[in-house]
Amino acid sequence: MKLSTKGRYAVMAMADLADAAEAGPVTLSDIASRQSISLSYLEQLFAKLRRADIVSSVRGPGGGYRLSRTASEIRISDIILAVDEPLRATRCSEAKGCLSDGRRCITHDLWDELGRHIYLYLSSVTLEDVLERRLFGSANGATGRLAPAATSSTRAAE
Fold it and tell me: What are the C-alpha distances in Å from 83 to residues 45, 93, 99?
């Protein structure tokens, strides 16, 4: 399953906002230039994030956006769901199955369970975790950090 640009860009922009927030409200044009995301696209995403009460806007000189809650209270799944990004791996709609006659395909349960795992993982990760690089798994080899379940024999093998 591949997450669309809408979800990825929303998370990237929120991480940028959280990282720069100590200096005060952050403008979308600053986020756009740092993350190479279209300003008009960010405006659409932030309208949805504002409606979901994940960000708030500050008007006037020195205005911009800030987090509505702390980074430790904002889950990645909150961000993705706020921008209307479905977290499903099946091709089924809620009312209809995968196949043209309305039945579920033979692999429906596999993809449905994968979607649940993705949602559970993204629900377990906060914006603060992303900023502090507290993510575990095979992808963090670049940081040299081990997942908490790593044993001393695993460390010795490295």
Answer: 6, 18, 28
- The band of 148, judged by pLDDT with boundaries at 50, 70 and 90, is very low
With beta carbons less than 8 A apart as the criterion, state whether 68 and 54 touch.
yes
Q: How far apart are CA 68 and CA 66, in angstroms?
A: 6
Which structural domains are found in the chain, ordered by start?
A: 5-142 (1.10.10.10)
Paired tokens of 12: 């990237």
pLDDT at 156: 42
Per the listing, tokens 């692999």 go with 107
Q: Is the pTM of this model over 0.85?
A: no
Eight-state DSSP code of residue 103: P
- Of 81, 9, 77, nearest to 44 (Cα)? 9
